[in-house]
Amino acid sequence: MRSLARCPRGDAMHDHRKLGRELDLFDTNPLIGAGLPYWLPDGAAVRHTLEEYIRTAERRAGYRHVYSPVLGKRELYEISGHWSHYSDDMFPPMDVGGEQVVLRPSLCPHHAVIYRSRSHSYRELPLRMAELGGMYRSELSGVLGGLTRVRAIQLNDAHIFCTLEQVAEEAQAALEMIRQAYQALGITPTRYRLSLPGPGGKYVSAPEMWQRSTALLTDVLDRSGLPYEAAEGEAAFYGPKIDVQVTDGAGRESTLSTVQVDFHQPEQFNLHYIGADGAKHRPVMVHRSIIGSVERAVAHLIEQHGGAFPAWLAPTQLVVLPISEAEMSNAIGLARRCTDLGLRAEIAGPERGTLGARIREGRLVPYQAVIGAKEAANDHVALRLRDGRRLDPQAVGDVLTHIGALINAHSTDLWDSSTS
Ligand SMILES: [Zn+2]
Question: How far is C-alpha 7 from the chain's CA centre?
Answer without folding.
Answer: 20
